[in-house]
Amino acid sequence: MKRLLEKNSVVILLGAGGVGKTTVAASLGIAAAISGLNTAVVTIDPAKRLRDALGLRSNGTKPLRLSSARLASAGLAPDMELSALMLDSKSIWDEIVNRFARSPQVRERLLANSFYQRFASHFAGSETFASLEQLYRLHEEQRYDIQIVDTPPAAHAVEFLDAPTRLTRLLTTPGVGLLFRPPLRAGRIAAKLASRAARFVVNELERFTGRSALVDAAQFFSDAAEMVSAVAERFNNVNRLLQSEATKFVLVTTAEPARLSEAARLAAGLKRRGVRLSAVVVNRFADPYSCEAWLKNRGQEPLHLRDLECFRKNGAKFARRDAKLDAIANVLENYRARFNIIAREIDNLCRVLAPEIGFMVVPEILSGVSDLRSLAQMARLLVAETSHAGEA
Residue 185: is its pLDDT beyond 70? Predict the structure, then answer.
């Protein structure tokens, strides 16, 4: 953990949707702030309970510091420096247009363009790049000691890392220039194309989106042409930040065999791409008591789970007379079997990780992570896992 939460660093959480990336990001933010770092947490689409816990009422482009009263109510130091932002990707793109458009006329046309509005809000990857752009801005401003970024719900590790390159390719591809530059009336676009297949594509676009939408797309790419070099350079800067020593990647998964196998493949794929993975967080592993017992004696089944054999053996004669007792025994034995399967999968994941990669296992918090106090509880659990990082 100490190697992960350092001054002048950027922490990016990767992983599939539904593994608790947002919760882990917020908890790491609290852990960083507890350690004395001025911390900014950037999240994309938190659940309502997390929005409320962090005091986020609306999207924006600037992190807001949590009030001393809110921190104190959760048992945290009121002078702790923790800021949070629920990102508004459309606002980020609008700021990019305002910054790089060369003339007020082009800027106004782009902002009013319906194709641009759909692109900035819904295009696959636009939300991902908006989060990276925000990260780069915070890094440039140097207002915070550490920034922790939660990736978009739909983004996976590879898609997230590829987003800047894909968007650059979209804006600079020769095919886009052939279709849309200089802007043409919708009726002339198809006529310009030599390929019958290309004419079919444009005709279909007209049929499903309408000619006005196609004209808007043509106008967008035409107006955006003057911004391409500046935006592409911005994307390159983002890529350099991703590849720098300051950026640390954390892979988040859950304690399910399929998820753990997926995490192992992702870790191997990231390694092949030259991405330095700093830590893996296995979220929602068993109950806190069993999780703690397992971490203290890695590779061994917790004693209280092994004792379930005695429960079944000694209680057999009673179980025959009491169906409820027999049902309880079955539940406990199934829990033990599932625990041991997952424990083996976690050990397998540890073996494929490099020794320097931090490894954290977080138990299932039975009350759920529903407020700032429970986030602080999870932060302390993450800090407590430091001594187990990297063990096989």
Answer: no
